[in-house]
Specification:
The chain has 330 residues and is α/β, with parallel strands linked by helices. It has helices at 5-18, 35-50, 68-82, 100-119, 130-143, 147-150, 169-178, 195-211, 215-244, 257-260, 265-279, 288-299; strands at residues 26-30, 54-61, 87-91, 123-125, 156-157, 160-161, 245-247, 252-256, 307-309, 313-318, 321-326. The chain is elongated. Residues 27-201 form the tRNA(Ile)-lysidine/2-thiocytidine synthase N-terminal domain. One of its GO terms (molecular function) is ATP binding. InterPro entries: Rossmann-like_a/b/a_fold, TilS/TtcA_N, tRNA_Ile_lys_synt, tRNA_Ile_lys_synt_N, tRNA_Ile_lys_synt_subst-bd.
Amino acid sequence: MGPHPAIADVRRAVREALADLDRDALVLAACSGGADSLALAAALAFVAPRLHLRAGLLTVDHQLQPGSKARAATVKDLGERMGLTPAEILTVTVGTEGGPEAAAREARYAALAEAADRLQAAAVLLGHTRDDQAETVLLGLARGSGPRSLSGMAARAGRYRRPLLALSRQTTVAACRAGNLTPWDDPHNEDPRYTRVRVRRTVLPVLEQELGPGVAEALARTAALAREDADALDEWAESAYQNCALSDIGESVKLAVAELEKLPAAVRRRVLRRAAIAAGSPSGALSATHVLAVDRLITHWRGQKAVDLPGGLSAVRRYGTLIFAISPIA
């Protein structure tokens, strides 16, 4: 008799995500102890030896709740009993910049990256599911930040891999139950102060109730399609940037306006964003509003003054050239 269907689904997803790795490569599961990452870790422990891979576990102690140290130790011990070695606790200090969710995420990923580098891991597995993807798409839609935001989380991003993006949270819960694993339910996942929790507990259920079942699946499909489109536009924009760039050496970036005028708006604005970042504008602070203001120097040119950009930069049009440089532009 084979494994429970939910366990089989999780194992299959992990196997497919790791199929390209070299023999004896180290794969690490990032595990909080919740159902998603616990099912992921158990599947990795089963699949890795059969693919001739080494497998370990990382758990992050954010130090945000009483008992977090003990819970992290429990996860570490469970990983070791599964045969996931090395198994490590990464203790982090969470700041306040950008809000609690963003600060915790930044601290967590910094710790995972350091550990992966130190251990020379080929991949770090994250337990995000289809439900997480749906929540991410809705949050991106609310921000109004374009198709890249709607594309959600990538199945692969550098060393990080998300094998469970096509599976539901219900599947990981069932896999844990069938595998006699007891997940830890993080109280933060029920705290309505967090935007993602409100999406999970209020917004998605209302959509399911009013529009019918399958909303999460539809949002995940939207994310996949949006990512394909965004990737294609990014590739086009990179090629266009090379054609438009008169100079991107030193302290300024100069683009030919005549070449920019030939581009569709979606590609042109990507080129402008690429140029601003190349000139030194921080990508996290550079908004769609900034890019649209620069775009008007191309599409609605009336001799207007320079556009101020994050990082102390300006963009100005002069004699058929768009110049990005530190303000003031001489």
